[in-house]
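2.7 Reproducibility. Because tokenized structures are sensitive to small changes in the input, we list the exact sequence used for NAD(P)-dependent dehydrogenase, short-chain alcohol dehydrogenase family, including any N-terminal residues retained from the expression construct. No trimming or masking was applied before prediction.
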Amino acid sequence: MKDFAGKIAFITGGASGAGFGQAQIFSEAGMKVVIADVRQDHLDEAMAYFKQKGAPAHAIKLDVTNREQYAAAADEVEKVFGETPDLLVLTAGVNVFGPAEASTYDDYDWVVGVCFGGVVNGLVTFVPRMIKKGKGGHIASTVSWGAFGAGPMTAPYSAAKAGVLNLLESYFVALKPYGIGVTALCPANIRSKIYEAAIQGRPEQFKNTGYNVTEDTQKLLASIHANGMDPRVLADWLKKGVENEQFLVAPYPSGPRMVQLALERFADYASPEGMKRLEEKAKQPPTEEEVKMMSEREGYDVTARPLGSSGPSIDVGFGKAKKDLDWVDSSKKFNK
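Resulting structure tokens (single pass, no recycling of outputs):
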């Protein structure tokens, strides 16, 4: 898709962070933008922005895990703008940090339900409508750099994102005959408010977590995200990827090399000799190239200060398990 003017974009998580950056950039490209988000306060702020700009935009409150709401949202788009979207961007996501072995069913049901299930619901809802429209189009999802590696402190999130990446590749192949492109956007640290969800946005039925999550841990996470990529810059990367019909967008100058290095480990996993190489590599400090790429992904020089050092100076137990989990190693629990 190279011509955006007059077309319709539907963006989940579109009222803040990465999604709002996407809404801005595609609106400026001439699109009519539908912003879907679970937070009414964020929707109100986003719509105030577009009203001031005089740009065509419509807000829909949407829980991406709710299929009935998704179907109603799709109907509403057609009622408001006359037809189904040309561009579907599935960005809504949540995350929470803690040891994998401390994860509860609720941790998985909430995070995977939003990050993977929300994408499934978007695809199943809109793909048939886009095909029937008969005008091609494009589908994108804000996946994550977490899709490429193990997540010992983000197991539900990383697993969900890896699943989304594979799912999108399946659709990338399947939708070619219909002229519908697919793009997976895989950033690392983004300047966003995703940290708010673990306390403000987690549904009551999924409250049972094994992780130490407090206002202080989320303030620390906010200080990390403050260094992340600007959402508009990220959206520019996505727009170029859509224009180029590019499946995978790793939004960094070293992006292709980052992907290459991240995937090399699987070849080593596949043999005893390779496993030994991985063990030895783990004992070595990162190479100059690896440090450079980590700095690109995090948004600051990782050699200059430790991760999150701009946050609270005390140990708040970020990424730790709750202290009452008697099967978790004591070093991984917050015992204060």
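Residues 307-313 have pLDDT under 50 and may be disordered.
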